[in-house]
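Q: Could you predict the 3D structure of D-3-phosphoglycerate dehydrogenase?
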Amino acid sequence: MRILVSDDLAHEGIDILKQEFDVDVKTSLSEEQLMEIIQDYDALVVRSATKVTKNIIDKSNLKVIGRAGVGVDNIDVDSATRKGILVVNAPEGNTIAASEHTVALLMAAARNIPAAVASLKSKKWDRKSFVGVELRGKTLGVVGLGRIGKDVAYKAIGLGMNVLAYDPYVIKDHVENIHIKVADLETVIKEADFITFHVPLTKTTYHMIDKERISMMKDKVIIINCARGGIIDETALYDALVSGKVAACALDVFEHEPPLESPLIDLPNVIATPHLGASTAEAQVNVAVDVAKDIIRALKGEMVKNPVNMITVRPEEYNEIKPFIELAEKMGSLYTQLKNGRISEVEMIYTGKITRFDVKPITTAGIKGILTNILEIPANLVNAYFLAKERGIKIIEKKISKDQDAPGNVILKITTDKGVGSVSGTVFEKNEQRIIAVDDYKIDLIPKGYALMSFHRDRPGIVGEVGNLLGRNDINIAYMQLGRKSFRGEALMVLGTDEEIPENVLDEIKKIKDVSDAVFIKF
Ligand SMILES: NC(=O)C1=CN([C@@H]2O[C@H](COP(=O)(O)OP(=O)(O)OC[C@H]3O[C@@H](n4cnc5c(N)ncnc54)[C@H](O)[C@@H]3O)[C@@H](O)[C@H]2O)C=CC1
Ligand SMILES: O=C(O)CCC(=O)C(=O)O
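A: Sure. Here are the predicted structure tokens for D-3-phosphoglycerate dehydrogenase:
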């Protein structure tokens, strides 16, 4: 397998990749250049410079895209998900670097350090123009209280600042215990002397700070943005810096990078760094190593640590749910090999000990199994939910947890325009998977290899007739299972076979008296 690294990645990460796969490093490529070569690669590793657009994704055969860093706004994650391409990032390795850079910018802005340095270097001894403000006792507004925001908050508390934070997704009590006061966005921006941003760039955070919100801020506020350009409307910010409403700002990030044409960087009260938040020796090694390890896991089909567009499973749970993931996929696939019809609803019902776990990965695997036989786009654990939803399929997940010590059971119930059908399965000791029912037929089937499933009216001799026909065609029967609704009533026969059953043989089986249908199943 081949990996393309299209941005500068620390060699520690590249070395790890090279131990397992072929790696090419080609940086500064245009979209067109990348589109020309991307088909040759299974994995792409980027930092923030490469824009992984829909065009590139659609042209590719990628299995995984890795971001050596946190923000994935340079990757069209929706397009990747639709195509079933896993996106992974490395969110932990640069937290300290970004938070230290934020504090450096905060202090540099408060004390006019860059301008003072430039003045002295131009041989001036000017002490009057650079009188600063102190941080102690001032309020720092922190917008976004994730890894970096929280670390900045701790550091600010250490500097004697009061921290007032806005993050609608954090638990208030949890952070208030550590002296961070939580408030709504308006309160934060109205009361803060300094405001720092640590949110991802999303549709919701794009221009979350505009002209109106700037007008609510204290006069002479100082703004720091070490998260993403685009969070603050740069035109509104420029006007506020010129009018003096905003005393100063320190920006590490810009809506368009590099911002060489931006009038912002020419203003005397703007400190600007070229997206250096994560640029420490330590952070670059951390993120390169983290992303490289996840790329390798993804290419080897193992569980990744930092998926962006796939459900996470805690490693300690993975071994427990893995056999159910495999089983659910086979159950879904069995269903759509057996039956057709326009699917409107998929219900996954869980009982027994599996209800102790998060079953979403199992549900996703069931959907993957269902979709694999009916869609042109290959379904996988990344895109299965997305593709089902796109087709208007309602997904219901139910846990019935009366006895959590009983063996785990999964029932897959599918509603189509032709009615409701189901497949049930279980996992025995030693991870042995079984399909135990198809609709109302009770069976005991190991979902492996090939099988013939035929529906017939129960009568003496019919099993032999099917068996003989297979024998005449040199198809060996490995095992047999019979499920019937009633004596001499409707029945389901499952014959495991060692060979594939060709269409013409299936047609002959269907012609046997009292056989209503026969389907060849591949597990
Ligand atoms: N300048 C640089 O070199 C670097 C910049 N970054 C940027 O910093 C951002 C934050 O990184 P982390 O703290 O590691 O991410 P994180 O995911 O730990 O934290 C993000 C926080 O933002 C919050 N959030 C999301 N939407 C919000 C909204 N609308 N309003 C308020 N809060 C919201 C989330 O609840 C979360 O707590 C990244 O997304 C990235 O864009 C990260 C590393 C380096
Ligand atoms: O790759 C870089 O240096 C930028 C880091 C960054 O912005 C991020 O991790 O979100």
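Q: Anything worth pointing out?
A: The domain at 2-92+282-299 is CATH 3.40.50.720 (Rossmann fold).
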